[in-house]
Design brief:
Blueprint lengths: L1 E6 L1 H7 L3 E5 L6 H9 L8 E4 L2 E3 L14 E5 L6
Parallel strand pairs: 1-5
Antiparallel strand pairs: 1-2, 3-4, 3-5
């Protein structure tokens, strides 16, 4: 099973890529993807979209992904 993760802003710079292709043996949860990509470095206020649909207030452990899904990780904007 393959999941595409698109990285934006600071995450793109920190991880040195704008896109990651992840493979899993079984259907992962969003939490599985976040753990693999970010470990315990999840920015507060990060926006997450799956297949261009913004998630709000959903527990990542309860969001099941399927083959071919695209997860967008967008850290909060900073600056002044």
């Amino acid at each position: 099973m393959r999941i595409t993760v698109r990285l934006f802003a600071r995450l793109r710079e920190e991880l040195g890529a704008d896109r990651l292709e992840l493979t899993f043996e079984q259907d992962p949860t969003l939490a599985d993807v976040l753990d693999r990509v970010l470990g315990d470095r999840r920015p507060r206020g990060m926006l997450i979209a799956i297949n261009n649909e913004l998630l709000r207030g959903r527990d990542p452990r309860m969001v099941r992904l399927k083959d071919g899904d695209v997860v967008d990780l967008m850290p909060p904007a900073s600056g002044g």
